[in-house]
Amino acid sequence: GAVVSQHPSRVICKSGTSVKIECRSLDFQATTMFWYRQFPKKSLMLMATSNEGSKATYEQGVEKDKFLINHASLTLSTLTVTSAHPEDSSFYICSARDFRTDNYEQYFGPGTRLTVT
Amino acid sequence: KNQVEQSPQSLIILEGKNCTLQCNYTVSPFSNLRWYKQDTGRGPVSLTIMTFSENTKSNGRYTATLDADTKQSSLHITASQLSDSASYICVVSAKSSASKIIFGSGTRLSIRP
């Protein structure tokens, strides 16, 4: 099956710094990538949808200036958490989909654990 | 309002036993329903995908059913193993230009030896 990778898997940063998380589709082209965050024992919450070559669409309540998303190619999307605060500590998961195949499948990355101290 | 509700919220069973997880949805127009398994600290992994015309699909010891009329789905796990301990998430997609995807809150399954 298709593989989606995320880097880094874990990151610890100091409050006020910025952190970039990469999401890559390894063996397929992802026309659309999704970014989620997940709190302990809770389900995934969609943060934004990014389409290659265009601006991301953010869900209500998600600050686009704080969570910068770039989908520069069909295999790479990045999420940058700017001026991170402890409340941004969470598990961030990306997923990728190739709408051209129309098989409805959405492939998830392994997640990135962000801890802001 | 598009919603996906899962039950039970959590479940503990003994190794080797069977169990069934439920998913009710109000998503419309319906496109497809997927079941995912998520191990702690990992990303979700797809188990099954079902469209409107499919009412059952198996993946090894996992069997999913779909009743599009009552808008219900179930995931049946046969002969549970310790490695089945995970969260199981029901995800329903709406057929629209925005391709809205709605996540259930998941069922946390624990298998005891």
Question: What are its keywords?
Answer:
heterodimer, A: 117 residues, mainly beta, seven-stranded mixed β-sheet, four-stranded antiparallel β-sheet, 11 strands, B: 113 residues, six-stranded mixed β-sheet, five-stranded antiparallel β-sheet
Description:
The complex is a heterodimer of chains A (117) and B (113). In chain A, 0% of the residues lie in helices and 50% in strands. Chain A contains no helices and eleven strands. In chain A, a hairpin with a 5-residue loop joins β5 (45-51) and β6 (57-58). The model of chain A has no long low-confidence stretch (mean pLDDT 91). With 113 residues, chain B is mainly beta. Chain B is 0% helix and 58% strand. In chain B, strands 2, 4, 5, 9, 10 and 11 form a six-stranded mixed beta sheet that branches. Chain B has a five-stranded antiparallel beta sheet with strand order 1-3-8-7-6, with no helix packed on it. In chain B, β6 and β7 form a beta hairpin. The A-B interface holds A 1, 4, 6, 34, 41-46, 91, 93, 95, 99, 103-111, 113 and B 31-32, 34, 36, 41-46, 49, 51, 89, 91, 93, 99, 101, 103-106, 108.
Q: Care to give the gist of this entry?
A:
The complex is a heterodimer of chains A (117) and B (113). Chain A is mainly beta.
Task: Summarize the SSE layout with pairings.
The complex is a heterodimer of chains A (117) and B (113).
Chain A (H helix, E strand, L loop, with lengths): L3 E4 L2 E4 L5 E7 L6 E7 L6 E7 L5 E2 L8 E7 L2 E6 L8 E8 L9 E2 L3 E5 L1
Parallel strand pairs in A: 2-11
Antiparallel strand pairs in A: 1-3, 3-8, 4-5, 4-9, 5-6, 7-8, 9-10, 9-11
Chain B lengths: L3 E4 L2 E5 L4 E7 L4 E9 L6 E7 L4 E4 L2 E6 L4 E6 L8 E9 L6 E3 L3 E6 L1
Parallel strand pairs in B: 2-11
Antiparallel strand pairs in B: 1-3, 3-8, 4-5, 4-9, 6-7, 7-8, 9-10, 9-11
